[in-house]
Amino acid sequence: MTRRELDIAEVVEWPLGFQLLFILLLVIALQLLGYWGYVTPKYNLESQVEDQLHTIKQSRNSNQDKIVKLVEVEAQYQQAIERGKKLSDPLMPPQDVTALLAKVAELVGRHSLSLTRIELQSANEYRFLTRLPITIELSGLYFDISEFVTALAQLPQVIIIEQIHWQRSGEASSVLRLRMQAHLYQLAVEKRDES
């Protein structure tokens, strides 16, 4: 029997060598088919896992960047709070006006001056600040008055002296009368809508 005479339908009648070769080729083909059927899903799964791993790495890097930015923003926020405190510390809270006026009266007494009047005028409100005009009238010796004004300037609150009028009590007297226009600054009170 020649190779040309071999018909697949008559495999049983083939010589034993050809039958074994045919079975071997069939087994190899089935093995390859099975291997391909087994490996392809594994390869696809590996590809999916690699894609997911890549996505996770990108997400992790993105999250790390966000965390770094968040830490930077938090540091900037803390710096802004500290700057705000430094800026607002010299400004009086609204409830401290009477305490400051008492402190001014105490400074007047400490420097041997006589206080004629302290007048707090109506407030000028701005967006973040309230400016309180104040008039202080007192009398005493020149050096005592200068020490009082120096002590007033050293108070931690913002007090701006705008006008000072000096007047001698009498021609022969060394006592001076002082009338001072100043402004106290305080944080503006937030107005809440009651609706």
From TrEMBL:
This is Fimbrial assembly protein PilO. It comes from the Bacteria. Gene3D superfamilies: 3.30.70.60. The chain crosses the membrane at residues 20-38. Keywords: Membrane, Transmembrane, Transmembrane helix. GO terms for biological process: type IV pilus assembly; type IV pilus-dependent motility. Signal peptide: none annotated. The lineage of its organism: Bacteria, Pseudomonadati, Pseudomonadota, Gammaproteobacteria, Vibrionales. It comes from Vibrio brasiliensis LMG 20546.
